[in-house]
Prior knowledge:
The protein is α/β, with parallel strands linked by helices and 216 residues long. Helix content is 55%, strand content 10%.
Amino acid sequence: xxxxxxxxxxxxxxxxxxxxxxxxxxxxxxxxxxxxxxxxxxxxxxxxxxxxxxxxxxxxxxxxxxxxxxxxxxxxxxxxxxxxxxxxxxxxxxxxxxxxxxxxxxxxxxxxxxxxxxxxxxxxxxxxxxxxxxxxxxxxxxxxxxxxxxxxxxxxxxxxxxxxxxxxxxxxxxxxxxxxxxxxxxxxxxxxxxxxxxxxxxxxxxxxxxxxxxxx
Length: 216
């Protein structure tokens, strides 16, 4: 199935997403371009969106619906590093799409919150991890979470692209985003109920585009 067909299938199951089909495709294209250039995806969110950040990383950093077997040259390098352990690694490791959930670094966040400013914890991670050409997926159902806005500013200053993943209004985050993906709902739980199938579709599209049939 072509990546675009996955999006069409998503719209078929969730017709409410039809008005944002263009931004969904544009956002996926930005992430695909980032990965093709060897960049990484940073993901930030609060509460349920923090959990979504880690969920997305789990789907990108290992096989989602494909096995993503390592290429033979990588398997050979592992065997050369250690004939026994390298062989085991070569058969078990999977190709990954480099993604980091900024909500997962508890020690760093609590240290920075205590020593500096809790609103700037995500911005500090963007400052440390982010490089030109990377992408920040900024998740905020209201679009007005201050720590997410600070992270978006840090990302823009680093030459990263910002995808704002919000509810219908887009909030302040929309103005700081290169691509604003606005779920057509306003109630937080309803926004999140649409965001999950969207990011599953993105992961499916990215896997299809970047690994294709040879990923098994």
